Prior knowledge:
It is a single chain. By secondary structure, the chain is an alpha/beta fold. The chain has two domains: about 5-175, Thiolase/Chalcone synthase (Peroxisomal Thiolase, Chain A, domain 1); about 180-325, 3-Layer(aba) Sandwich (Peroxisomal Thiolase, Chain A, domain 1). About 30% of the residues lie in helices and about 25% in strands. The protein contains eleven helices and 13 strands. It has helices at about 20-25, 35-40, 55-70, 95-100, 120-130, 155-160, 205-210, 220-240, 260-270, 280-285, 290-300; strands at about 5-15, 20, 45, 80-85, 110, 140-145, 165-175, 180-185, 195, 215-220, 250-255, 310-315, 320-325. The strands form four sheets. It has a five-stranded mixed sheet with strand order 1-7-6-4-5, sandwiched between helices. Strands 8-13-12-11 form a four-stranded mixed sheet, sandwiched between helices. A two-stranded antiparallel sheet has the order 2-3. The mean pLDDT is about 95.
Amino acid sequence: MGELKAIITGVHGYAPDYRLTNAKLEKLVDTNEEWILSRTGIRERRILKGEGLGTSYMAVQAVNGLLEKTNTDPSEIELTICATVTPDTIFPDTANTINHLIGANNAWGFDLNAACSGFLYGLSTAAKFVAIGRHKKVLVIGADKMSSIVDYTDRSTCVIFGDGAGAVLVEPNEDGLGLLDEELKGDGSGREFLYMKAGGSRLPASERTVANREHFVFQQGRPVFKAAVRGMSDTIRTVMQRNGLTKDDIDWIVPHQANRRIIMSVANELDFPVEKMMINIELYGNTTGATIPLCLWEKSPLFKKGDNVILTAFGGGFTWGASLMKWGYDS
C-alpha cells in the first residue's frame, strides 16, 4: 500500500441559461465585439436570473449532478468547502446552506475566500483532511455570482465576469494518483489593484457607499495582468522543477480563465504548447472561483487516468498558485 493521497473522483458543473453576449453588452456600455474579443477572448458569459437566487443555487445544481455521476449518497459527504467571493450572505456560510439543500446531514462545511485562487486553496485544504485519514468524501466547490457585484456601466469589468459553479469529489487513494504537490502564494500589497471597496467591517454599507458605487469589483488591469502572468508562470515552474518534470511530462495545464491574453502569455513564458492549455473562457467569461472546476468539467472527456495535470490560478488580494496532480480516472 502506498502513501495516502487525495484524488478527484468526479467533477460536475453548472452554468445559468441566460447568455450575456458581446452584442448585448454593446447596448449597455461603449464597447463592441472586436474590442472585447481582442482584449479578453470572451464571446459570452452566463448570468443567473431569478429573484432570490444566489451562489448556493448554482452550487447545488453542480453538486447534485456530481453526486448522481459518482453514485454518492449525500449522507456520505463529510466535509464541504465552498470557494466563493459572493456568498449568499456574509453569514451563515454558503457551504452549510449547500449541505442543507442537498441533504448532506452528516457533513460540516465552511466558505473559503481567496478570490480566483479559491478553488486551489479549497482543494489543498480538502487534500489535507483526506491525507491524514480524517475524511473520506469531501466536496470542493468553486461558485460565484459575479453579476451581483459587477457594475454594468463600467466597461473595464462588466465585459469580463460571469456566473457559474463547479464541484469535485475528493477521496483517498494509495496508488500514487491524486494531488502530488502544490505551491500556493499570497501578497496583501496587491489589494489596491483588484478589490471591492465597501461592504466589509472597515467600510460598512451606507447610503454614501451605495451612491458612490463602492459595492462593485474594481480593477487596475495592467498591474493585475503583469502579476498574474508572473505568479502563475513562477509557481508552475516551481512544482515542475521540484518534481523533476519538463514540459513534455505535463499532459495538461488548466489555468484560471481570467483573460485569454493572460493564458497565452503564461504559455509563452513557459514555452508550453498552447494546445495543452485548457481554455473555455470564450463561453463563460471569468467566473472567479468557478473557472477551474468548470473547465475540468467541460474538458473532462480529454483526461486519462495517470495524466500529469497542473492547475493554476491568480486572484485579487493577491493570491496565486499551482497544483500538480496525477489524474485519477478515465473520464
